[in-house]
């Protein structure tokens, strides 16, 4: 077992974890943050995407011990007091949500993109979301939602 | 009153945000794998090691000795019938004596943790005696082929026939006869959420199952049958669903029955979650078809006769094969008037992964063939593909190949063809692109396809569904239905309809998850039937609830109920607008008058009929029409196809929620694009080789093109507020349109899906799955 300290959604937690424990399992099973989803376990679908120190990562491919000292943002951290972020509202306004299983990962990839590049082009948005599979929406309304937020940026 | 209410609709036809949207963007939505219970066990299925074998013995002793293992269950532990099935109840939930494909389960390990269960499952030793297996559907039907089910001679699951007119006479009248073979591939639904359930011991010896269950009532029948329990003791509650597309039916019945068996026998909750690899191995797929078409046409392009033979690979179990192939019989000729038709469609068992319902349900295969064929006719005769379709296409009063005169709804085929092709700039591009392509490596093309599609179940079977609208004493409203949310937006559509009919703010409405113990069996959520069937049931329930409130207000005001008019959030006396009562006040009046404020709605589909000997009848009570145009660029050096633009026109009857309808357009086209270009489940001697999304490729945000949705609305008298169907039509024609565009670009035709690089460049499949058939080298 290894002791790690993580800052998850602005809350510091210290845990003893098995060296083989994946970040997705720590978040879902130990911290109860089930908003992060697992769809493939091999880093292809992006449903488990969270933001680690500013980067969107597949939490199924990251070991929790690798995250010692890291700041982690999950979908639950986007609206801590129930106040939706601009991006979350845009997803609802643009019909970007159908089944909703890919939605947390999409939101996290887009959040990381907008933090690093507040005014991405449509092509940059599509590239940033290419690691997040969605089977319902055909991506169009998701791209529209991110675009809408980008267009409001100064 | 009805017409007037529609005219001033507030919610029907207006934008409305998803009622489950907040939960889904905040991570609060609860999917199957998010469920857990104190003291729960994890279940792990042990699957077959052979595509076809007898089971001599199962030795679980090593598994039972592992840490944390509570039990290892086999077929002998099943208290009821081990077999279930929607059409033919012959699929074992755990196999007792024989396995028929590599996804079959032979044992269930229950352990304290998921890891312990998976570890112990590897130690369960089944002793198999391999049997001869068959993986090719034509071979399966030959004399001497191994029989997959002893009661199905020749392995034939079903044989549908259509006999209309004199086919020989029709061919004799033709100036040109074409014969073509087409083939489609095995395809995975690829819902992003893998299958998951949590089963709990229930009251009175029953069970409760929560999970990613598309059809809770079908699932309940399977669980009750396997456990030997009455339906009333089995409660199935649907969780939020991470996509289904027809795919979470039988595979969920099996998983639910296994978990429920574990819960019943151990008296502890049992959770099961498939890995993606398990999902790809066990879950059923879309049928691969082989299709032979013979068509006769006059010099002008008029079709005189068609002879069609299709064979679908059913895999190991019947599942929905009889119904899937039946829908193909209706759509086999496409939306064209054909005076003489002879169609034979068969499904046959093999030892491949079984096939069943998937978005389109027997249509995408037939549409790929018949719409490729229409372009081949056009090419042979030197006619524009649009013109050959306009010449033969259904118009008001046309009679289908299966003998249904289309006169009860607006036959809008010409309208959707015109709208889509005009928006795409068809005529100009069709002429210009070939000229521009000369000498180029990257060549461009434009192609189109269209279809008609029967709404709901049609003559497949009983078609009725219900809804409950319950007005609470504070004016909030609970709605529940027997149809279920799979991600498509049913909760929102039904909330809009309930709000519309009740005349209340949509914010009053709370939509409950589908609970088999809370609402009557409303049939499966399939066949794009939710809005047209369930919408009518919700409307019926809401109308009855509104009438109860009108009666209460009338009594209070001392007028007759006929003199009360329901407005938005209020009731008033007709002719005296000063007598107005707010909705909350009306609820209080009804409560004080001890009135029932909950109501049950029920909707039965209009009558249909079918003569299976000749394949003639009124197959569906209404139809929708759609047309899509694809614009592609093909790299002739690599064979790679890039779709640059898709334009789609679909008649939906009425768009209850225009944004959600557009979402169905985009999502259906993207799935159709994957079918056309990328997707293929590869099996080698029954073993799945495409085991995860690194090998089974579905479109990403980088693969989808510009998509232009054109929503056509011809209100249908049988629709819910005129609304019909959109889920499947958008998905079933895209691949055919892309194939036609590729043929236009490169000047030769690929008659086999998917149009991946090797099929386009070399005209053959280099991988293991199939190959050799139906393609020409460029």
Topology:
The complex is a heterodimer of chains A (about 150) and B (about 775).
Chain A (H helix, E strand, L loop, with lengths): L1 E7 L2 E7 L5 H8 L18 E4 L2 E4 L12 E3 L12 H8 L9 H14 L5 H7 L11 H13 L2
Parallel strand pairs in A: 1-5
Antiparallel strand pairs in A: 1-2, 3-4, 3-5
Helix pairs in contact in A: 2-5
Chain B lengths: L1 H6 L13 H6 L14 E7 L5 E7 L1 H4 L4 E5 L9 E2 L6 E2 L5 E2 L5 E7 L2 H8 L3 E6 L6 H4 L15 E9 L2 H7 L2 E8 L12 E6 L5 E5 L4 H12 L6 E5 L11 H17 L3 E4 L2 H7 L6 E9 L5 E13 L5 H11 L9 E9 L13 H19 L3 H8 L20 H12 L1 H12 L4 E13 L9 E8 L5 E5 L8 H13 L6 E3 L18 H28 L6 E4 L2 E4 L2 E7 H10 L5 E7 L4 E3 L4 E3 L4 E13 L5 E11 L6 H20 L5 E2 L2 E2 L17 E7 L16 H4 L1 H13 L10 H5 L17
Parallel strand pairs in B: 1-14, 12-13, 16-17, 20-21, 29-32
Antiparallel strand pairs in B: 1-7, 2-6, 2-8, 3-7, 4-5, 9-17, 10-15, 11-12, 11-14, 15-16, 18-28, 19-20, 19-25, 22-23, 23-24, 26-27, 28-29, 30-31
Helix pairs in contact in B: 7-8, 10-11, 11-12, 11-20, 15-16, 16-17, 18-20
Tell me the series of helices and strands of chain A, N- to C-terminal: EEHEEEHHHH
The assembly state of the depicted protein chains is heterodimer
Strand content of chain A: 15-25%
Strand order of the largest sheet of chain B: 3-7-1-14-11-12-13
Poorly predicted regions of chain A are: none
CATH architecture verdict of the largest domain in chain A: Roll
Compose a concise summary of this entry.
Chain A is of the alpha+beta class and 154 residues long. Chain A is 32% helix and 16% strand.
Description of the structure:
The complex is a heterodimer of chains A (154) and B (778). With 154 residues, chain A is α+β, with helices and mostly antiparallel strands. Chain A has two domains: 2-77, Ubiquitin-like (UB roll) (Roll); 86-152, DNA polymerase, domain 1. Chain A contains five helices and five strands. Chain A has helices at residues 23-30, 86-93, 103-116, 122-128, 140-152; strands spanning 2-8, 11-17, 49-52, 55-58, 71-73. Chain A has a five-stranded mixed beta sheet, covered by helices on one side. The longest helix of chain A has 14 residues, at 103-116. The model of chain A has no long low-confidence stretch (mean pLDDT 97). With 778 residues, chain B is an alpha+beta fold. Among the domains of chain B are: 2-29 and 464-604, 2-Layer Sandwich (Aldehyde Oxidoreductase, domain 4), CATH 3.30.365; 32-132 and 194-275, Alpha-Beta Complex (Aldehyde Oxidoreductase, domain 3), CATH 3.90.1170; 437-458 and 622-778, Aldehyde oxidase/xanthine dehydrogenase, molybdopterin binding domain (Aldehyde Oxidoreductase, domain 4). Chain B contains 21 helices and 32 strands. Chain B has a seven-stranded mixed beta sheet, with helices on both faces. Chain B has a five-stranded mixed beta sheet with strand order 9-17-16-15-10, with helices on both faces. Chain B has a four-stranded mixed beta sheet with strand order 18-28-29-32, with helices on both faces. In chain B, helix 7 (216-227) packs across helix 8 (250-266). At the A-B interface, helix 2, helix 3, helix 4 and helix 5 of A face helix 2 and helix 18 of B.
């Amino acid at each position: 077992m290894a002791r790690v300290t993580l800052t998850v959604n602005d809350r510091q937690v210290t845990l003893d974890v098995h060296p083989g424990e994946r970040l997705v399992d720590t978040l879902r099973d130990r911290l109860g943050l089930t908003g992060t989803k697992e769809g493939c376990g091999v880093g292809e679908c992006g449903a488990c995407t969270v933001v680690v120190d500013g980067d969107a990562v597949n939490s199924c491919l990251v070991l929790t011990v690798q995250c010692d000292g890291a700041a982690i943002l999950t979908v639950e951290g986007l609206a801590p007091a129930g106040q939706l972020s601009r991006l979350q509202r845009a997803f609802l306004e643009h019909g970007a949500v159908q089944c909703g299983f890919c939605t947390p990962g999409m939101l996290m990839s887009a959040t990381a993109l907008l933090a690093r590049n507040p005014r991405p082009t449509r092509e940059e948005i599509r590239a940033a979301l290419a690691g997040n599979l969605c089977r319902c929406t055909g991506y169009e309304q998701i791209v529209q939602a991110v675009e809408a937020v980008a267009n409001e940026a100064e | 009153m009805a017409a007037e209410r529609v005219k001033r609709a507030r919610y029907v036809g207006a934008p409305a945000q998803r009622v489950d949207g907040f939960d889904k963007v905040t991570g609060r939505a609860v999917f199957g794998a998010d469920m857990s219970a104190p003291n729960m066990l994890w279940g792990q299925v042990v699957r077959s090691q052979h595509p076809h074998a007898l089971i001599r013995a199962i030795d679980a002793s090593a598994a039972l000795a592992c840490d944390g293992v509570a039990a290892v269950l086999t077929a002998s532990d099943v208290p009821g019938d081990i077999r279930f099935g929607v059409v033919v109840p012959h699929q074992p939930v755990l196999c007792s004596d024989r396995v028929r494909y590599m996804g079959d389960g032979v044992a269930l390990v229950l352990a304290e943790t998921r890891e312990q269960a998976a570890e112990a499952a590897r130690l369960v030793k089944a002793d198999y005696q391999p049997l001869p297996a068959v993986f090719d559907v034509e071979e399966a039907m030959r004399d001497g082929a191994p029989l997959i089910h002893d009661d199905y001679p020749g392995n034939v699951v079903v044989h549908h026939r259509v006999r209309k007119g004199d086919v020989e006479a029709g061919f004799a009248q033709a100036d040109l006869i074409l014969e073509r073979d087409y083939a489609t591939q095995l395809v995975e639904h690829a819902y992003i959420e893998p299958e998951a359930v949590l089963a709990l011991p229930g009251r009175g010896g029953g069970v409760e199952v929560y999970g990613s269950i598309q059809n809770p009532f079908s699932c309940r029948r399977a669980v009750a049958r396997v456990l030997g329990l009455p339906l009333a003791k089995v409660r199935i509650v649907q969780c939020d669903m991470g996509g289904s597309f027809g795919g979470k039916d039988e595979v969920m019945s099996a998983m639910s029955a296994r978990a429920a068996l574990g819960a019943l026998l151990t008296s502890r909750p049992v959770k099961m979650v498939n890995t993606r690899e398990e999902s790809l191995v066990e879950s059923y797929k879309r049928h691969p078809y082989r299709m032979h078409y013979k068509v006769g046409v006059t010099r002008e392009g008029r079709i005189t006769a068609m002879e069609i033979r299709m064979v679908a690979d059913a895999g190991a179990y019947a599942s929905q094969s009889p119904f899937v192939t039946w829908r193909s019989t209706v759509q086999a000729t496409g939306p064209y008037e054909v005076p003489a038709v002879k169609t034979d469609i068969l499904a046959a068992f093999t030892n491949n992964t079984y096939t069943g319902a998937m978005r389109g349900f027997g249509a995408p295969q037939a549409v790929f063939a018949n719409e490729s064929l229409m372009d081949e006719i056009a090419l042979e005769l030197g006619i524009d593909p649009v013109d050959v379709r306009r010449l033969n296409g259904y118009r008001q009063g046309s009679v289908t190949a299966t003998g249904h005169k289309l006169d009860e709804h607006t036959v809008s085929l010409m309208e959707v063809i015109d709208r889509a092709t005009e928006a795409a700039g068809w005529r100009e591009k069709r002429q210009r692109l070939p000229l521009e392509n000369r000498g180029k490596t990257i060549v461009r093309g434009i192609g189109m396809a269209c279809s008609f599609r029967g709404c709901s179940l049609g003559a497949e079977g009983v078609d009725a569904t219900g809804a409950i609208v319950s007005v609470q004493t504070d004016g909030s409203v609970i709605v529940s239905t027997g149809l279920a949310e799979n991600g498509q937006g049913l909760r929102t559509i039904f909330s809009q309809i309930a709000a519309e009919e009740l005349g209340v703010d949509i914010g009053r409405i709370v939509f409950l998850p589908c609970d088999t113990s809370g609402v009557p069996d409303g049939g499966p959520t399939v066949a794009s039937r939710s809005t047209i069937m369930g919408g009518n049931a919700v409307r019926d329930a809401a109308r009855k609830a509104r009438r109860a409130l009108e009666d209460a207000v009338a009594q209070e005001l001392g007028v007759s109920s006929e003199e009360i008019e329901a407005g938005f959030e209020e009731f008033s006396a007709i002719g005296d607008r000063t007598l107005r009562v707010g909705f909350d006040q009306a609820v209080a009046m009804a409560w004080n008058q001890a009135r029932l404020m909950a109501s049950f709605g029920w909707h039965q589909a209009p009558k249909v009929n079918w003569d299976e000997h000749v394949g003639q009848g009124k197959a569906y009570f209404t139809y929708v029409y759609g047309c899509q145009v694809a614009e592609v660029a093909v790299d002739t050096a690599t064979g790679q196809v890039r779709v640059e633009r898709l334009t789609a026109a679909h008649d939906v009857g009425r768009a209850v929620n225009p944004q959600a309808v557009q979402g169905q357009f985009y999502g259906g086209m993207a799935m159709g694009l994957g079918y056309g270009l990328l997707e293929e489940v590869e099996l080698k001697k029954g073993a799945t080789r495409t085991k995860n999304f690194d090998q089974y490729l579905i479109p990403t945000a980088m693969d989808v093109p510009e998509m232009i949705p054109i929503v056509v609305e011809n209100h249908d008298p049988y629709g819910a507020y005129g609304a019909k169907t959109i889920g499947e039509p958008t998905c079933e024609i895209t691949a055919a349109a892309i194939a036609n565009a590729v043929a236009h670009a490169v000047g030769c035709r690929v008659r086999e899906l998917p149009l991946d690089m090797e099929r386009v460049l070399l005209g053959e499949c280099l991988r293991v799955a199939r190959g050799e058939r139906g393609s020409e080298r460029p």
